[in-house]
Write a structure and sequence with these properties.
Radius of gyration: 19 Å
Strand content: under 5%
Shape: globular
Structural class: mainly alpha
Helix content: over 70%
Order of helices and strands: HHHHHHH
Number of strands: 0
Distance between the termini: 72 Å
Length: 196
């Protein structure tokens, strides 16, 4: 790792990438999550290109393309809680694309950390629950932190540690929010029974 202009630029863009990703873990709805992820992944592609990390770049391209589809799908079909055949087909195609690109850009066993992270991430963003997205963000962040260490991205490791912490915070906040909503609903039902 040489401290030249390209490397310094990659580290500056890494901070931007992870700032956008961190905001996605704090977003309240799926559309905001996807838009922030698109901006983050686009920046990440440039970062991995600058670092010469082909597998990381390939995984980021897959995520970016899938996120464009998810954004289009939500715009065209609205927010849907149930899954349709097209949802499963898209997930299968994305996972197949991850596998093919992993084979084509394989760079040793440690490079597979990005493949594992991308697979988990795709499953987390594919399903329609922000709670699951935030939970799976924890192992995803751990894998990307290790991968950034492998490719020599100092700020990638630091920022991914922040993402790890942010995803834990986002998940805990989501769980607490769900619990307090259930408690309020329970109180409303018991109050209704008493007045009846």
């Amino acid at each position: 790792m040489e401290l030249d202009f390209t490397y310094i630029l990659s580290q500056i863009l890494t901070v931007v990438e992870y700032g956008l990703l961190g905001l996605s873990y704090l977003a309240k709805n799926r559309k905001a999550v996807v838009i922030l992820d698109i901006a983050s992944m686009a920046t990440g592609i440039v970062v991995f290109l600058l670092l010469g990390a082909d597998l990381g770049m390939a995984m980021s391209v897959v995520v970016l393309l899938a996120n464009f589809y998810y954004l289009w799908d939500e715009h065209k079909h609205g927010k849907q809680k149930r899954y349709f055949t097209r949802d499963f087909v898209v997930l299968a195609v994305v996972l197949l694309l991850i596998l093919v690109l992993a084979i084509l850009t394989y760079d040793g066993p440690l490079s597979l950390l990005s493949v594992f992270a991308t697979t988990l991430y795709e499953i987390s963003i594919w399903q329609k629950s922000t709670k699951v997205y935030k939970f799976l963000g924890i192992p995803v962040a751990g894998c990307w932190m290790a991968y950034n260490g492998v490719v020599g991205s100092i700020f990638g490791v630091i920022c991914e540690f922040v993402m790890f912490s942010t995803s834990i915070y986002g998940y805990v906040a989501e769980v607490r929010g769900s619990a307090s909503r259930r408690v309020r609903k329970g109180r409303g039902k018991s109050g209704a029974k008493k007045s009846a």
